[in-house]
Here is the input.
Amino acid sequence: MALKRTNVYAEDSDLLLIKEAALRLGVSEAEIIREGIHRIALAHRVWDEPFVSDEETFDLGAPVGEEEIRSAVSDGYVERERRNRSNAA
Here is the structure.
């Protein structure tokens, strides 16, 4: 990936946050800024085609309700936290 130089203006408070994050993570401030630019660029990207085609979807058999979604997300979060705690030990 070829990098190009550019200039940006930033508030002092943001520059302080970048400096703190870079020190904490052991990377350069430029790396933090590049990552931020990349993330915001991807967040605002407009895709020419759908993320998945109709052929790549599947039928769940019935509508999925709000409570079922909430429960699945909550269960997944609890399981991930359990795995993270057991890996840290």
Notes: Helices lie at 12-25, 29-43, 66-88. The mean pLDDT is 91. The first helix runs from residue 12 to 25. The CA atoms of residues 9 and 73 lie 39 Å apart.
